[in-house]
User: Fold this.
Amino acid sequence: MKLLGISGTNGSGKDLVGHILSSQHNYMFISVSDLLRDECRARGLLVERENLRSISAEWRRVGGLGVLIDKAVASYNASAGSYDGLAVSSLRNPGEVDRVHELGGKVVWVDADQRIRYDRIQAANRGRGGEDNKTFEQFQAEEAAEMSTSGDSAKLDMSAVRQKVDSTLVNENSLEALEQDISQNLV
Assistant:
C-alpha cells in the first residue's frame, strides 16, 4: 500500500493536496478532520476546533495514538484494491506520524504564509458553517496552542509532528505549481 500522511498548518492546503492525489493519481483520500466533524454532528456538538480536538484526544486515549490512521487504513482495505494508494490528512499528533511510518508510508508537511492561510480559511468558511469564523489574532492564538505540547500525549502537538515529517510543500503559488510539486515529489 502506498500511504501518504499529510500534515501542516491550518489553511495550508492539506485537503487540497489530498484531493489532487485522489483526482489525478487514484489515491483514496480521507480527511481525519472530516471524520471528527462527523462525530461532532453524531454527538450533537457544535463543529468547532475545541470539540474536534477533544474528540481526537478521546479517540487516541481509547484506541492508541495512531487510531485515526488505523481508521483510514481500514476504509482503504475495505475498498478491495480500487485505489493506487491512500492519502490521509490532517495529522496533528506525532503518534499519527509514527503510525504512518510503521506502515511504510511517508508524511508531508504543507505550509504557507500565515496571512495567506488565514485569508483562505475565511474565504472557505461559508462551506463549514462558520466553524473557523475567527479574527486573525484568534487564528494566531489557536495556531500557537496547537504548535506547542501540552504534556498530554493524546492531544495535538504540531511542532512534534513537523519534526518527524519526510518532506515539505510550500503552497503559496498557483494550483498548477502545487500539482507539479505533488507529481514530482510525492507520487
